[in-house]
Amino acid sequence: MGGSISIKDLSKHFGKVTALDGVCLDIAEGEKFGIYGADGAGKTTLERVLCTLTKPDSGSANIFGFDLVKDKREIRKLIGFVPSTSSLYMDLSVEENIRFHTDLFGLPFDGNDPMIEPIYRYLAPFSDRLARNLSGGMKQKLALCCALINKPCLLMLDEPTTGIDATSRQDMIDCLELLSKQFGTTIIISSPYRNEIMMCDRAVLMEEGKVVRVGKPSEILPSEGIAFRDTNDQLNEENMLEVEGLTKCFGNFTAVDHISFHVRKGEIFGFLGANGAGKTTAIRMLCGLSKPTSGTGKIAGIDLNKDYEKIKFHIGYVSQRDCLPTDLTVRENLRLAAGIYGIGRKEADNRIDECLRRLGLADYADRLFGGVPLGWKRRVSFAAAMMHDPAVLFLDEPTSGVDVIARKQIWDIIRAVAARGTTIVVVTHNMEEVLWCDRQCIMVDGVIKAMGDLRKRVKEGDSDFYEVFEQVTQTGQ
Asked: How far are the Cα atoms of 25, 33, 43, 63 from residue 28, in angstroms, in the given order?
């Protein structure tokens, strides 16, 4: 059996769309190799072809001495794959999902196996829990555990940490590092996150199905070019969001425990915490979707307890997943949003035209939302949330799953909107984006443990906020 992966002139078309165009790559045994590129660059198609899930139209690939097409059954015995969409059975428990995969390979399961134990130890306490009831981070850990059942020589991961919290993301990265160093596993990972590509030995930058550059991650990754916004002395002193002692209990469980903070007009406020910290519950109360158990809050001077229905007309909300109707065009979705807020047809058309122009969406105006690329979908969701000119805008993972270029464009928009006076609350797991907020708030177990311009605690030379986040979540300081 050979010891490397060799890809020669690999091409794949879907109708008139060229997903892969003459891709040539060589990946060494035991190498950590990253695949980076914008939406539609061909990252997922390349991994699916190498996993033998999609047959190439032309070209060839040799994986550890086996031909990609002729020997696909042998190749499948050597690989593990964690796709970007869930590969789990949601109606099965953690243990049942694992047993299903062991039965597929005719192998026994040993949670103490050195290759599996580092990831299984996170799952063992929840072995009876249904997969659908796991957090995003735990679902991905379970998917990785299932992919390791057959002790693969080659492990492929397609955006494995998109949408999960920083602690779970680091847990996954640590496990991958261990697989590489201790077992010599060859790892191919596609990701929109710079820190994940930076952990690789080499990476490829792809564009429109073609290889643009191959080399060390530091050599091929484009710069995001976003600097700190030094505005704390320039912001309006008017508080658009005020929270005092806000608490939410579900039975005997306290999800949010007497939190207090304020956000000024035009400020970008980063709201952080691991999965289960209470962020979503807090945001739901601030959006008027859930009544507080105790405490008070005001948005643009409107009391959460007394006028929570009115709150909805003064806020905008962009969820982590795009929820707009896929069978309406971009323009129709924006017109629907305007109608919901009672904006007249003429005024709505004027606002829509302005949004399309300002957000660069004119070319997509009459395209069905379902057919719009992910990065552009986020812009449309942003435009819909801004249609009624809200005082406060809540963004839940606004760049989840988008590439570095789209992320920069979205953050350019966020900054431009904040500069016009809109207060923005960003819920994010991305430790790079945290640095682009004016202030940060970290929640742990329903309590705010740190708040302020926490960027001052980032050590010189660190490229993201992870060390600060980890210290606060583990020590509370």
From this structure: 10, 9, 19, 10
